[in-house]
Amino acid sequence: MDPIVSIRDLSISYPGNGSRSAVKHISLDILPGQAVGLVGESGCGKTTLALALMGMLPPGCDHRGEIIIAGQKVDFYQRPGQPSARDHCAMIFQNPQTSLNPVISVGTQINRVIQRYSRLKKSAVPDRLAELLVLVGLSDHCRKLYPHELSGGMQQRVLLAMALAREASILIADEPTAALDAGTRLQILNLLKQLQEQQKLSLLLISHDLSAIARVCQQVVIVYQGRVVEQAPQKLIYTQPRHPYSAGLLAAIPKIHPQRPRKLQTLLGEANHSSDQTGCDFASRCSRREAYCEQQLPPLNATLEKSQQFACFNPRPLPAVRK
Ligand SMILES: Nc1ncnc2c1ncn2[C@@H]1O[C@H](COP(=O)(O)OP(=O)(O)O)[C@@H](O)[C@H]1O
Ligand code: SF4
Ligand SMILES: [Mg+2]
User: Fold this and answer.
1) Ligand with smallest separation from the Cα of 45
2) H helices of the chain, where?
3) Which residues pair with 313 in a beta bridge?
4) More confident: 192 or 268
5) Integer Cα distance of 309 and 307 in angstroms
């Protein structure tokens, strides 16, 4: 199956940041109907990658590599009004309130997207609006409301309805639940999962939270300082993470179990952003570090079945198989 999104050897640096790149040699495929999760701590380049996919990089960025979406090459600095690969993407952001127009009812805002992007006749637009509201779990009377009359979770549902109205090839969700309380966060993640499965959406879900990604995505890509350090099916990342950073992210997920309370693990140290560093980016925080780790960059190796790739000279051993 051909990928709907193909990112090839993508590197991006912002002007004024010297030789320090926000995204480093990332290659990544998203298949039709697949949900891929991109995880990493704040500042590791997740939003920069999303902006590149949307052709929305700020002017002056230095970029190498290419992105193909639905067979069309992405222009990293898209000029407004011109057809582009961006037309195949829909995106929702962390803070839904800033993405909605405060003086227009949400029904009218969704209607405008339907009229612009779907091939429906004008007479069919109200039915499509009603259908979208049901899909995202909003009652029909919400169409008359203004953004300030909705909770954060409801606003995010409106943005999801607008994203579906675009009938895009790929939905990019950049930290869509980061601004929501814990209960609402779970509802929105469950909705994303349900929509992804029902509508066979191709989804790139971006988060700093591995548990959020695991709830929704089939494939997980872990990024550290702009570089992919591990990618694998969700089940493998959960049961046998090979890169120490992936293992650290996993150990930092709180688990509430009354019989077996577990002390929450934290990743020690901070990311080293120095651009003249050689060797593994994670070395300053890694408990498995050896002298050679600081001398050369570990390549992204694949396991024999090629389903799991990790960039580490000294990966965590696989768990022993129980007989
Ligand atoms: N407009 C910008 N100008 C200069 N540097 C930027 C800009 N946006 C992001 N960066 C830098 O690029 C790196 C990656 O940022 P970002 O993609 O926002 O990370 P994330 O979304 O993972 O938090 C960070 O070091 C950040 O400081
Ligand atoms: S290459 Fe070395 S320093 Fe880097 S993650 Fe692996 S063991 Fe740690
Ligand atoms: Mg971000």
Assistant:
1) 1
2) 46-53, 96-99, 106-117, 125-135, 152-165, 182-198, 210-216, 234-239, 244-251
3) none
4) 192
5) 7
pTM of the model: 0.92
Which residue ranges have their beta carbon within 6 Å of ligand 1? 14, 17, 22, 40, 42-48, 58
State whether the beta carbon of 244 lies less than 6 angstroms from ligand 2: yes
Sorted by sequence, the CB contacts under 8 Å of residue 246 that are 6+ apart come out as 222, 229, 230, 237, 310
Q: How many Cβ atoms sit within 10 Å of the Cβ of residue 113?
A: 19
Contacts of 107 (CB under 8 A, 6+ apart): 129, 142, 143, 144, 145
Average pLDDT over residues 98-115: 96
Tell me the pLDDT tens digit for each residue of 132-177.
Answer: 999 999 999 999 999 999 999 999 999 999 999 999 999 999 999 9
Is pLDDT above 60 for 323? no
Is the CB of 247 within 6 Å of ligand 2? no
d(CA 12, CA 321): 41
Three-state DSSP state, 99: helix
Is residue 224 within 6 Å of ligand 2 at its C-beta? no
User: Which domains does the chain possess?
Assistant: 5-310 (3.40.50.300)
pLDDT at 278: 84
- Any ligand 2 atom below 6 A from CB of 25: no
CA 286 to ligand 2 centroid distance, Å: 6
Q: Is the pLDDT of residue 281 over 70?
A: yes
Cβ of 241 below 6 Å from ligand 2: no
Ligand 1 centroid to Cα of residue 66, in Å, is 19
